[in-house]
Write a structure and sequence with these properties.
The protein is α+β, with helices and mostly antiparallel strands and 1153 residues long. It is 31% helix and 24% strand.
């Protein structure tokens, strides 16, 4: 039995006999014997080994020791202890509570066993269950007693300590997991530690200061003890920090609480502060005026860590961000280019911008010119653009159109462009083609009405295909056909170029096309090296200049000099690529590559030659040593070219290919969809047709600047960029933009998901990525950075690998983080590399103008009515006047009107934003009940607050089991758990008394949320939320769930027809309804509403925003600025550290806010 226990952590009760046999410093060896009751499976006498002060283990006194049995040796058995404490008899409460851990033992049975056997009740039930069954009577049969005994046997290793801790915690509100946590933290000394210093119970999950302090007083400890005063001062400091988001608070702010907690003349604030500082509970710092500030030690350490990491990155690391001259940035305006260049001037960079200022590139139509693509807005009379014949035509006139509704027109091959409803197209309908009639010039509106040709097919309107485009002639060193061959079967990673192919025709072609002084040498069967003939290798030098040298197959790309070359040269390039990586079965052409950058260039190449492509991609799998693995992503193209275009030179493929004469490349208009209101213009060009090329083969449009940046990074470095956001909604929004831009391979995630949330003991969590396990990316882009608190930023930077460039993208004018600190504000104010976009290109209209006025502290006025097609920009911000009493009814009436008269869904397209959770008629809880009855009025199950179809929100980060529906059993939980983020909104698909099934957009799998009488894990309404794991302990972060955010639904799920503006950060909605609440806790002097609150609420709207309430309320909150109230020392610390490290920061206007 003892052999099986070797190396297992266990508890024994032993009595030292005689003096120490050996001692070296703290380590000692003693002889001991078992203390009663004697266990037959353990040796009666053995050696004790471990650390103890001289005389601390006294002979003939019993001790409980926590440690491990060691393998027997020539000296006999021995026990190596980690900790120990004097043995104490067990009390009634602990024994009764401990017994109930076993099956079939309820409170009555446990009480009976105590009355019968007292302190031996546990041992007797475990060792002689028959005796226990006899003592209890018929309700506790021998079979039940034996099953209970088996359970107790499993718990025997820590039995005595567990009973003592249960006895100590009984009736004091400690959670069940606290016992095991205490054992893990302090071992055999757990009881001693907690009775000597009850405030150390705050280290246990679910125990805050209020509960620990009550525990202290319950044990009869002196209320005025200086150590308790230090704890009280520390708690008061942390509470003040929580309430307003400070890192540092005036130390005097905690004295009032201290005096209330320690009544009488024994209060010593200065001594308490000194002890709290020495005990590493608080840290103090003086400002430039000599005032003393205090901070929780963990929060101060997190702030210092962030500052040191930022300065170390700026001082000792160099990052090469993509050049803004790359084609991915061709669409940027001069302003955007300038500000992005400022942002990307350091290892850690910042990019800011207000709503509509260009985080989204203006969706101006792209027009093709002889030198490449430019925006419609950049065209001037006299410029040349490419006409439908592929030749340059001159622009004769510009016709500004103002702000108009814009439609996205999508083609059958996936290409798309944007235009107004009266834009002119030349199309042929099915009837015209069938009767060999000529086509007609039609408006977008006419096409939209006749997309369907009458039989359900949408291939009615066919547009002309361009002839091969003639760009300006480009000079090259490597022949285009040779470049195509090298892009296909070349290798650029050996310091020189290699070519591997078995085709003699291609080997001869490479040899004949090499420049003078360069030769092809065979060194293996089908492997050839391209080497210099005694001098410089011009091929290698040119590949280096073009950015191809050193690239792997997935990283190859077509240089611009070849993409924008003449039609003859582009065809030669295409032939080289298809001769190596192309295939034909006679009629069809296929091309395959593993490079996303090469794939983009191939699409451009084919379409510029008048062809079409359809793309599919997949991730192949293979087996290596019995393990299934994923290969590199593969892109497969089906190509259609005009019959006059010869795609192959290789005789084997050229002879097999049969040009399509009956079915040449075609494009049909398959969709016309409204996509917003934008500033438009049209142009007139010379020529008989008046046609010109717009973005018919543009791959991307309407995407954030960060999407452009991500595309450039992946084109240069491959999939080495991570994109993260603080919330699931923000990450989802970026994901949708990238999908729209057809940017594959980069998956935006929440920061928690990106850092890897791992569950640890007793339901806590920690991040998987940190200094020891950094993120494997070369670039990190963080969207909605204004929501980042200091604690989460500390964890994010800890996971940043050395040499990784970081760009924070966010609007500093929005609400400050829910967490403590204001790092984006401080990084900008300290002078880190920063660019700010100010040109307005999205959310154009009153919303943008009002947001700008709010930030600048200027007066503003809403529109009288909504008019999204108003000349000069949409009128999209309206005030619905309503007093305090009538405001809730006004909100309901507004949603009824939107439901009955607008195309918007009042549940999923409209979001009501409120200031407070409770205590107001416009609070989240009250409005949600009214809106549920209005918008989802089904009877439902009265045993649950939820109804099928309800809009619900998750109120804290939580792992939730996924749900499975089976016949006969209904909905059940699976073993898989999904992380649902705080603030994520979902739809109820099933509801009953004890469980609710919810579909969240972040996962294809629904989750099952169990309901019960929700136990508050917090100490009290005054104690603040609990910590949630290792991340919280390291950073001083408390759960952002506030007291009034607790639900009465029996779970962490609540209705979301109305949500707080704080919860809406990072999200956008077609329609936002912002409540101007007159409740003092909302808009009063100390209420939560401020300039940032109103600005954030209004800017959540994509199409229109309704303000419900009185204008004077909005004006009053605009005068309250909270962001600059948050007290941190990050700005000062960054400047101090930068000066010492020799890092030059920007000079910042002191009146920035």
């Amino acid at each position: 039995m003892l052999t099986a226990m070797v190396s297992q952590l266990t508890e024994i009760c032993a009595v030292p006999i005689g003096d120490e046999k050996y001692r070296r410093e703290l380590f000692c060896i003693l002889t001991a014997r078992q203390a009663p009751p004697i266990r037959e499976d353990l040796p009666r006498q053995f050696s004790l080994l471990g650390d103890a002060e001289p005389g601390e283990l006294k002979a003939l006194l019993p001790y409980r020791l926590w440690g491990r049995w060691q393998p027997a040796n020539q000296y006999g058995e021995s026990f190596r202890f980690d900790s120990f404490a004097p043995a104490q008899p067990h009390g009634r409460a602990g024994v009764v509570r401990y017994l109930q851990q076993a099956r079939h033992v309820g409170p009555a049975t446990a009480e009976t066993l105590w009355e019968e056997f007292h302190g031996d009740a546990v041992r007797i039930l475990r060792e002689t269950p028959e005796r226990a069954a006899e003592a209890v009577g018929p309700r506790f049969s021998i079979e039940k007693a034996r099953e209970a005994a088996a359970d107790l046997a499993k718990l025997a290793a820590a039995e005595n300590l567990t009973i003592q801790l249960m006895d100590l915690f009984d009736g004091r509100g400690f959670g069940r997991s606290c016992v095991q946590q205490a054992l893990k933290l302090w071992g055999a000394k757990a009881v001693e530690v907690l009775t000597r210093d009850p405030h150390r119970a705050q280290a246990l999950r679910g125990v805050g200061f209020i509960k620990a302090d009550k525990f202290y007083l319950d044990l009869g400890k002196p209320p005025a003890k200086l150590k308790r005063q230090a704890y009280c001062l520390s708690y008061a400091t942390l509470k003040a920090s929580d309430q307003q988001g400070h890192v540092w608070v005036r130390w005097e702010d905690g004295v009032e609480y201290l005096r209330a907690a320690v009544a009488g003349a024994d209060v010593s604030p200065e001594k308490a502060l000194t002890l709290a500082t020495r005990g590493r509970l608080l840290k103090t710092k003086r400002d430039a005026y000599g005032r003393l500030w205090a901070a929780d030690i963990r929060r101060a350490a997190a702030e210092e860590y962030v500052c040191r990491h930022l300065i170390d990155a700026l001082a000792g690391e160099t990052i090469e961000w993509p050049s803004l001259d790359r084609p991915e940035f061709a669409e940027l305006t001069d302003h955007q280019r300038s500000e992005l260049a400022k942002a990307l001037s350091g290892t850690v960079s910042l990019l800011g911008g207000r709503p509509g200022t260009g985080k989204a590139q203006p969706v101006d139509a792209k027009v093709l010119t002889p030198t490449g693509w430019i925006n419609m807005g950049q065209i001037t009379p006299g410029m040349n653009v490419i006409g439908d014949e592929g030749k340059a035509v001159r622009v004769t006139a510009i016709h500004p159109q103002g702000f108009r509704t814009v439609y996205r027109v999508t083609m059958s091959d996936g290409a798309s462009t944007e235009c107004t409803e009266d834009h002119l197209w030349y199309t042929t309908t099915r009837q015209e083609r069938k009767n060999c009639w000529a086509g007609k010039v039609r408006t977008t509106a006419e096409i939209m009405k006749t997309l369907d040709r009458g039989d359900g097919s949408i291939t009615n309107h066919q547009i002309p295909m361009t002839k091969p485009v003639e760009f300006t002639q480009k000079e090259w060193i490597i022949h285009p056909y040779l470049m195509g061959l090298l892009l296909g079967d070349g290798c650029f990673r050996a310091g020189y170029a290699k070519f591997t192919n078995p085709e003699p025709f291609l080997i001869d072609a490479v040899r004949n096309l090499l420049p003078n002084g360069v030769q092809l040498k065979q060194y293996k069967n089908i492997d050839y090296a391209i080497t210099g003939d005694g001098g410089q290798n011009v091929v290698t030098a040119e590949l280096e200049r073009l950015g191809l040298m050193g690239k792997r197959s997935p990283d190859k790309h077509i240089p611009n000099v070849y993409l924008y070359g003449s039609a003859v040269n582009r065809l030669a390039l295409l032939q080289g690529m298809l001769d190596t990586d192309g295939y034909t079965d006679g009629h069809n052409i296929e091309y395959t590559t593993s490079s996303p950058h090469l794939a983009m260039g191939f699409i451009f190449l084919v379409q510029s030659l008048g062809g079409t492509v359809s793309l599919t991609d997949r991730i192949p799998t293979y087996v290596n040593n019995g393990e299934k693995r994923n290969g590199a992503r593969s892109f497969r193209f089906l190509v259609s070219l005009a019959s006059a275009v010869e795609p192959f030179r290789l005789p084997r493929k050229r002879d097999a290919y049969i040009p399509k004469t009956k079915y040449p490349p075609r494009r049909y208009i398959v969709a016309v969809e409204p996509c917003g209101i934008k500033n438009c213009q049209c142009i007139s060009v010379e020529g008989t047709t008046g046609l010109y090329l717009t973005n018919d083969f543009i791959v991307t449009h309407n995407s954030f600047t960060l999407v452009r940046l991500v595309r450039a990074i992946t084109a240069i470095h491959g999939q080495c960029v991570a994109v993260m956001a603080p919330t699931g909604k923000a990450a989802q929004r970026v994901k949708e933009l990238m999908a729209e831009a057809r940017l594959t391979g980069v998956k935006p995630t929440t920061i928690h998901s990106g850092l890897g949330v791992a569950k640890v003991h007793e339901g806590g969590w920690q991040f998987q990525h940190d200094e020891r396990n950094p993120l494997k990316c070369r670039f990190l882009i963080v969207e909605e950075a204004s929501m980042l608190g200091t604690g989460l930023l500390r964890s994010l930077l800890a996971a940043r690998a050395r040499g990784c460039g970081v760009l924070f993208v966010g609007d500093v004018n929005q609400l400050p983080p829910v967490e403590y600190g204001a790092p984006l504000r401080d990084m900008i104010a300290a002078g880190l590399p920063y660019g700010e976009l100010r040109e307005i290109h999205r959310n154009a209209g009153t919303i943008v103008r009002v947001c700008s006025a709010i930030v600048d502290g200027q007066p503003w006025q809403p529109d009288e009515q909504i008019d999204l097609q108003a000349e000069g920009g949409p009128k999209n911000l309206v005030l619905v006047p309503a007093g305090k009493a009538s405001a809730p009814a006004a909100v309901c009436h507004l949603l009824e009107t939107l439901r009955d008269t607008s195309p918007y869904d009042p549940v999923w397209d409209v979001q009501v934003l409120v200031a407070v959770n409770d205590r107001s008629t416009l609070s989240r809880k009250i409005l949600n009940r009214q809106l549920q009855d209005l918008l989802n009025p089904q009877a439902g199950d009265r045993t649950t607050p939820f109804r099928v179809g309800d809009k619900v929100i998750q109120l804290r980060n939580q792992f939730i089991p996924s749900a499975i529906e089976t016949k006969g059993k209904g909905w059940t939980s699976s073993d898989d758990k999904l992380l649902v983020a705080n603030g994520e909104i979902g739809r109820v698909i099933h509801a009953e008394e004890k469980k609710t099934i919810v579909q969240f957009p972040s996962s294809d799998q629904p989750v099952i949320v169990f309901r019960g009488s929700r136990r508050n894990a917090d100490d009290s309404a005054d104690d603040g939320p609990e910590t949630t794991g290792e991340h919280a302990k390291a950073t001083g972060t408390r759960d952002p769930q506030k007291d009034d955010e607790r639900t009465d639904t029996g779970c962490d799920l609540d209705l979301a027809y109305a949500v707080t503006t704080f919860k809406a950060q990072g999200s956008q909605f077609p329609i936002a309804v912002y409540c101007l609440d007159e409740y003092p806790g909302a808009s009063g002097e100390f209420g939560v509403m401020s300039r940032e609150h109103l600005y954030t609420g209004i800017s959540r709207a994509q199409k229109a925003c309704f303000l419900v309430g009185m204008k004077h309320v909005a004006d009053s909150v605009c005068r309250k600025v909270f962001l600059n109230r948050r007290k941190t020392f990050m700005q000062e610390t960054l400047r101090e550290m930068a000066a010492k490290a020799g890092v030059k920061l920007r000079i910042v206007d002191s009146d920035l806010w």
